[in-house]
Design a protein that fits this description.
Helix content is about 35%, strand content about 15%. With about 200 residues, it is an alpha+beta fold. The chain has a single domain, classed as 3-Layer(aba) Sandwich (NADH Oxidase). A four-stranded antiparallel β-sheet has the order 1-2-4-3, with helices on both faces. α1 crosses α7 (about 125-140) and α3 (about 55-60) packs antiparallel against α8 (about 155-160). It is globular, with a radius of gyration of 19 Å.
Length: about 200
Amino acid sequence: MEVTEAIRRRHMVRSFSVAPLDRDQVDRLVGDALRGPSAGNTRGVAWLVLEGTDAATYWHHATTADWRARARRYPGLSRAPVVALCLCSPPAYVERYGEEDKRRSGLGAPPNGNGEDAWPIPYWFGDAACSTMLLLLGATAAGIGAAFLGNFRGERPLLEALGVPAAWRLYGAVLLGKPDGADHPSPSLRRAVAAGSNSVHRSRW
């Protein structure tokens, strides 16, 4: 599938079949997702892939029992056979930007910089977003359904339960699986968009 076609076809799937995915195919998709931009070639993004019953750990910590009981989308979402967690390491970027060729940026650790607080736009989240987008597009091109779920709650208990070192942050999760045809479109799609709105500008706003 052409890149432009994958971009145009990409959408969030919210109801999955329990059918497993080929592990080699999942590994290829995640490997390709790590080919995204990396500020300073830091390579501070990683993926933790949960399959089968391991995915229950994600749902236990990232959602509440009340939400799971009342959310009509939860059954379809929870059937996804793969939950891929996108992780990023802020300290890795601070360390990289404290190296000699980046030191003048002021983004390294003290005394030459102010650490994480010095970053107006944290590159670690930017790199994680790029990697996430590559996985979503790769899944579309492979004919696999995918959905992105942001980091809303339970991050630290989840990562501790999975043995993730404390230096790493959770950017979000990508669910992967075969659509079951019973999808629930997001209510956001019904949101009215002002007529004539334009997000592309030239020369000046």
